Protein SIEVE ELEMENT OCCLUSION B isoform X2 (Vigna radiata var. radiata), 687 residues
Amino acid sequence: MSESGSNSTNGQQQGMLKQKQNPLEFTHDKILEDVYRTHFHCLEKCDAASLYTVASNVLNQSMDITEKVIAKGEQPMYMFKEDTTITSQQLAAKLKRIAYLMICTPRGEYPVHCTTMLILEQLKHYSWDAKVLIVEAAFALEYGKFLYLLPLIAPCQQFESSFADLHGLLMVPQNTKHLSHFNTVVKKVMQVVECITQWKKLVSAGHDIRDVPTLAETLQEIPVVVYWAIFTFVSCTGEINDFTDNKYQKHELSTHLEKKLDPILGEFKELLKKCIDEIERIEDFTSRKNIVTRGRDIVKVLKALIICGDKRDLIQNVYYFGLTEEQVKLEEFKKKCVLLFISGLENVDDDIKLLNSVNEKLKEKAREVENYRSEDFKILWIPIVDEWNEEGRKKLENKLRDTKFGWYVVKYLNFETSLKLIKEVFKYEKKHVIKLMNPQGKVENFDAKQIISQWGIDGFPFRTSDQTRLSQQWKWFWSEITKFIKEIDNLIEEEDCYLFIYGGSDTKWVQEFTKAMDELKKKVESNVDLNMTIESFQLGKEDSKDVPRFWIAIDSLLTSRKQVKGVVPQTNEIKRLLFLKQDPKGWAILSKGKNVRLLGHGEAMCRTVKEFETWHDKLSLMSFDVAFTEHYRGIKEKDGSKRCEENVICYGHPTDIVERITCPKKDCRRPMEVTSVNFKCCHQHKQ
């Protein structure tokens, strides 16, 4: 065929190729669809790590030598060494076949695309990273020829120079300008390969896609990224042999590829960064959750719970609000029990009032129960809102300014991991909760709010076991009293219902107290701000015989308990009730639901009810039962009623008395001497 005929044929072929769509103009979705059709289950395996190491080393060493040639520099600082090998002969043969395909690919975008799709078809049973690594290794077979350029920049033997000449590499120095740009494209595509191997490690780590949602995005991107990486290797392989031609002309495709790879690489790197950030958050969350749930030390637990970042001792947004606002370190909670209050900013006033009341009582009088001491208790409030905007900040600041808490507050907690921990570990779902944490950081009561609401300071130290103990403490009383006042049975299940049960031998006092209670109930009902009900019941009102029957039943309870060896629960409560009935005026019991809050003497109880107007302002700061009890005790103290009780309980015979009885007054509790069948505190004789 003549030269003109040959040129005509080539021109026709090139014209047909130009009519084909340029792959550089393909949309993302078209490439994704075409490439995904070539991908099947990953049935074939290869040592991706070794392949990546060997190929990268060959390419890096080759580029190092070519850059020395370009710069006409000195001998490379290191010689080519390889500790990693590929032992699979089958894989080696596959690399040669793919390298041959790439070498034989005509110049131009569409032929490169066709070869790329053919290679993807041949590698359809390999994973995405393995596909691109195999092609990179095949490219390294050709690009590795530049290792033979060493004779041009270093002393060598004639054999080495001849070997380089056989490959046509002695012509390379004439094309160094284009070789420099070529290396830039190779380095770029190697960065893409590095990102793909990094992606594979993230995918293989076993993270749930629900926890790392960006991984799902990468699954939509990886086929396209792999396509362009292979496309670039095919294009560059075909260009390698052109460097041995003294008439070499730079192909525009490499310039277009560099521009194409830049956004692809940038976007994929951004996705990987997001994946890594999400995984780091998961790992940080897991680490913190382990600290919080295992509970070794309260300070470490609180730091893991609320402090942002790795250096958890630097940024501690914890403040103590007493007379002044003071920023503190979490080390203040060392070896302390913590009442952890978690809430929003809405409808929080009642809970703040409740905790303020408990906090005052903890400081007011030293208490100790089974090595739990009141001075070792601290209250920490974590306010939580969806977003700390200006309105939320002002609301919190106003609340902190208007209320002298005397406890600790975490301000503006917006650390995502902390919020997730609080919701997951402490089951917080916008319902206000109070958790009791011991000095080891373990939660001893997930619902301390219940016992504090029902029992106040009497629930100290607020453990779950204390709730059980207190709920059983007066069970015997309700079992007996409901036999005589049946209406009470349903009311004691209502937590916001306050019950007054009263009686006595002084008719005038009973009438006076009944009238005072009627007035009190009217005042409470007329006040819409008081969300509570008050009910009162006189023992024996319907049948006067109920009075002796009730007391005989209580007396029998005490007798039966004294016949049991060891400490019997509720014995002291029975004694206190029996002593109460000796008051010559009368007696009254205040209960919040089934929780008995006060056993009161007649005169002081009647005065407290009558003087409601003088103490009702306290109801904005504390619950009704707490305010009532405080006023009652104030009256008792003013009256000088500090002497110990001298009460009488009559039994059929002195032999019925089988144990010593202590003085029922709480600040005495000394043994009482037995004289016949009378119980009287004897310690007064020693004063």
Observations:
- The two ends are 137 Å apart (CA to CA).
- The chain has three domains: 31-71+91-282, 299-469, 473-639.
- Residues 252-294 form the longest helix (43 residues).
- The first strand starts at residue 318 and ends at 321.
